[in-house]
Amino acid sequence: VARSVRGLRVPIAGSLAGRAMAEMRVLRGDDRSSEPGISAAIASQFDARAVLAAPLRRGAEAIGAVVVTSNRADAFDERDMATLQILAEALNLAMQRAAATHELRTSEAE
After folding, report:
1. pLDDT for 42-57, tens place per residue?
2. pTM to 2 decimals?
3. pLDDT confidence tier of residue 1, bands split at 50, 70 and 90
4. Contact call for residues 57 and 35 (beta carbons, < 8 A)
5. Bridge partners of 70?
6. 87 close to 54: Cβ distance less than 8 angstroms
7. How far apart are CA 6 and CA 104, in angstroms?
8. CA dihedral over 88, 89, 92, 97, signed as positive or negative
9. What is the per-residue burial (b if ≥16 Cβ within 10 Å, else e) of 92-107?
10. Helices first, then strands: H and E counts in the chain
11. Are 87 and 66 in contact (CB under 8 A)?
12. In what order do the strands lie in the sheet with 27-29?
């Protein structure tokens, strides 16, 4: 069952999302009972046992993360990580395009 979590804020320090942002790569947490990097906020709110996190970027700066969870331990594999990387790259491109379009429209309005 998919749940919307748009806008959920997860602390960067001590979370898998924060590590993914710092390391600028997709990371996987296989089981929250043995992975200290899985955020307690996500784990408790969504009964998450396994987590994937990919950084979202603006240029070379991490500005957030895409996080996917499962209530099953060891739910994700290398293929899932590659898929999330592709999704994150597509989101990065979409955000860059939206920012460029906004900037162009703003400059045309002036």
Report:
1. 666 667 889 899 999 9
2. 0.79
3. very low
4. no
5. 50
6. yes
7. 27
8. negative
9. beeeeeeeeeeeeeee
10. 3, 3
11. yes
12. 27-29, 50-58, 61-70
Q: What residue ranges in 2-110 does DSSP mark as E strands?
A: 27-29, 50-58, 61-70
Q: Give me the chain's average pLDDT, please.
A: 84
Task: For tokens 């996080």, name the residue.
Answer: 67
Q: Which helix (H) or strand (E) holds 45?
A: helix 40-46
Instruction: Kindly state the tokens that stand for 101.
Output: 């379009």
Q: Using only C-alpha atoms, what is the Rg of the chain?
A: 16
Q: What is the pLDDT of residues 8-40, one digit of tens each?
A: 666 677 788 889 999 999 999 998 766 665 666
